[in-house]
Amino acid sequence: MMRRAPQGTQAIQRALSLYRSFSAQQPEHRLTDLAAEHGLHPSTAHRLLGALEAGGLVGRNRDTQGYVWLPEGGVSGGERPARRNGMRLLAPLVTPFHRRTEALCESGAWRDWSGYACALSHDPLPDHEYWAVRNTAALFDVSPLFKVEIVGPDSERLLDRVMTRDFTKCRVGRVIYTSWCNEDGHLLQDGNVQRLEPERFLVSAAEPCLRWFGDCAVGMDALVRDVSADLGVLALQGPRARAIAEAAIRGVDFAGMRYFDLAGGELGDQAGAGRGAPVTVTRTGYTGDLGYEFWVASEDAEALWDSLTVAGAGHGLRPAGLLALDMVRVEAGLVLIDVDYVSAAHAELEALKVTPAEAGLGFTVKLDKEADFVGRRALELERERGPAWAMVGLEVDWFELERLWSGIDLRPQVVGEPASREPTPVFVPGGSQVGQCTTRFFSPLLKKYIALATVQADVAVLGTALEFEVAVGYGRRRARARVAKRPFFLPDRKMADGSAAGAAG
Amino acid sequence: MTEGVTEAAGTPGGAPERRGGHFDAIVVGAGHNGLVSAAYLARAGLDVVVLERAPVIGGATLSEEAFPGFRYSVFSYLVSLLRPEVIHELDLVKHGLFLVPTASTLNPLPNGDCLFRESDPWRTYHHIARHSRRDAEALSEYKLEMRRMGHLMFKLQRAAPDELAAAVAGHVDENPGQISSELSAEVADISRYFLDLPKQRRRSFLQMLTMSSADFLDQWFECDALKAALSSSSIIGSFLSPRTPGSAYVLLHHYMGEVDGVYREWGFQKGGTGGVAAAIASAARGYGAEIRTDCPVARVLARGGRARGVALANGDELTADVVVSSAAPQVSLGRLLDADDVPGGAGKGLRDRVARWQSAGCAGKVNLALDGLPRFECMPEPGPHLAGGITIAPSLDYVERAFDDAKYGGFSERPFIDMIIPSVLDPDMAPPGKCVLSCFVQYAPYELAGTTWDEQRDAFGDAVVRTLAEYAPGIEDQVLHRQVLAPPDIESIAGISGGNIFHGELRLSQLFLLRPDPAAAAFRTPLPGYYLCGSSTQFGGGISGGPGRLAALRILDDLLRRGAEAR
Q1: A125 touches chain B (CB under 8 A)
Q2: Cα separation of A296 and A232, whole Å?
Q3: How far is the C-alpha of B164 from the C-alpha of B464, rounded, in Å?
Q4: A401 touches chain B (CB under 8 A)
Q5: Domains defined along chain B, listed by start
Q6: A69-83, A106-120, A477-491, B417-431: the lowest-pLDDT one
Q7: What does the pLDDT look like over B16-32, one tens digit per residue?
Q8: Lower CB count within 10 Å: N or C terminus of chain A?
């Protein structure tokens, strides 16, 4: 075992060992390979390599995105980065679809998502991308998701121990949406788990989870491995998704795939044209609409993008960005980590931590399962006591908006705004605060102002009148809202069998 | 969800159909306004039947698959004026209302250039600045001013017309006592609001009621192509040119339109405009209204100085406490109404005035099924410009000349064309790779000098395709099918007399308390119990539902009053 480095020098040691991997014989490395070789999380490796890059010791190969060695005098293929001013040592990572999305991103607006550059919208305004999800189909690059593979004889046992759902009931070819908690029953994350083989699972989540799963795997025969950078992921969502998928991927019975099914296929149409790279398809998404997600090796990412966009041309397919995704997921009533709830992994205050039930994910907690999963005892106690908080949908009707804006003699100025993530207080009518509204947005589809809010459990009853703050001009006003059913929008096609409700809207 | 009206219409309503019988209210015509009225009346608990002459509902809001695989929005093609009150009070989203916003407006110019306006204001600024930096700057101010005008119109539109008339024109109602104190307060509010406006805006408003749009736009802009582009909304559906006094009002009329509080936005109903009528019909049925198609009404029955029901063309009679007609005035106050039934001998005068109502149609519709997307010379590749409006109106002179043809009884040889490509907005409208092109065409006068539409229909269609080919070369070879509709077709299919899309010109002489007649200005007619709810009332045309709603509220108010008196 390596001698433990003195405090504070660990990063230097790691960076040095990374640098030693480069040689004249092997001047170029992929990030994922380096990370695996050195037992580092890819984001750690990336950070360290960024420092080496800034120091002029390594460079990037523009074509392969690999890191190249820069001995004195330099090596062809790499570029010595310009001296930075020290403000930002690290350029954002790019996903394997970046060359495609960048070419289409007319807005030039990018947002950082877990260190990756992602288009906010491709058009100057997100409206048409939003409508594409409900009207035709939209293509989202969701590659920045963290992906962890769990392999081995104990993989099912490990997941059953970590997750709140029952993994003994997860068949191969299915995906399960689940929560996972700490010992106190406080929610760490939510995410999807694919069962690819009897002893191979893939977890996808918004935040890193390798260490947590690794810690929980002590004593089990299961290998936990981060494969985030190895896979490119696209979400194809909207009423036309099936027609497009059928034309772009062969070997998958899209009409026969049920909601949360998983299947393997290959790129190319049914006639046999196309490259034939393998692709995993899941009938999942974050939009509340009919949709599929496609998982491919990074090197096949562009081929996947091209297959789908060619197939989508006659169907009104649009590339869509994070703003549109944030709008449709509110309509679908889907919560977002660190927006609608705070992960117990980084809650600054004990009071910010929530249980799955308090985050609206109570349905993912299976107390009737056999395994003693992390957080079980606390959640059993909560079941007896009842949760203190509840995640609710709030709905403000049009006439209330008219009333609010008539005060400044304008029509309601609500359309065209992206979903707001600025938390605002929720009150009982005319009274005290009972919670907070975490995401809100005027849905042009439903023509209602809708919001996700965490409120005291006693007021979380359908139809209850509440108030929350909205900005009207420069003023702050209280909008009368009503506790409404989540999801706000649930089209039949989202979960319907392929043969029946397919193309009809 | 967005069932075509054709399919939906055949299904019987909520109540079992009765041959003859008595209803609380009979609505004549299942266009969008008739359906809105029926929905509000049924929502208030009345037993309502809608009687539609045609085999399908929708009137001018009609979609059909006229060519296999291709769906046409036969007449109306975009929605903007639909009142939010109507949408929300009738819960139309739940019933299938699904408006996809249009993206932009493209005006191809003859030199291969174009004028392009997008939803992003800065991109629009730079597009226009290529033609005139001054105009690019003026455009944003103009839009703001027009939004304010639209807002003023919106406020006026909310008031009931007779009270409004009393306030605006000092008109003394025959029953001044009927102005309820609540409404008077509203009128006082509007009057105060109007008087508080900056002087310049009050002047603009009066200019808009009277001026020509060309003169009005001259005050703002220097670029002729931009003026022509903006003048489009001032002539749509009207037998006016941009240089005809009064056309500025039509411009203003279109600025009243809003989508979710944003003035001047347009939306395309998924599945075609018929889906709007289908949604309203579904709401009406949900409230218990019955809708009968293939059921033409012959006349309104009156007894004891009050409307008592209707006689159908097949001889059946239906009785009701209230009859409300959504038809144009020539039908509602002409053919359906026996002048002798009108109390006080006022019937004859009314009939004569209605005969002079200006409502000759001047617009045609050409719907094309194309083998692929049109390639406009100015922007040949597919792109977002195809998801918006595309208008052939390259100069004011061009539009004026198109009008000149019609002035003397011909259709425009090189017409004004306002297009959308529905299949780009909604791929359900055409098979993948193909497209439908909806062309609203002016001018096409109802009566042609020395010939008939049956003889000229094809020549008119040819003129449209020929004109399109000047801007999108090769389009003539892409046409798989075409549907050419002239005003007489609008009359026979949608049932609008004269084929005028607004049920009568939107000129000051036919607006406010003069719409459709001083004796029938507040949705009431001189025959008690008989009401109007169509586009020929108050603020007129467009898929607004406003007249249908206000008429229903008027009727309910009157019924309450009668009930109170009876007690």
Answers
A1: yes
A2: 5
A3: 42
A4: yes
A5: 5-98+270-358+497-566 (3.50.50.60), 129-262 (no CATH)
A6: A69-83
A7: 555 568 999 999 999 99
A8: N
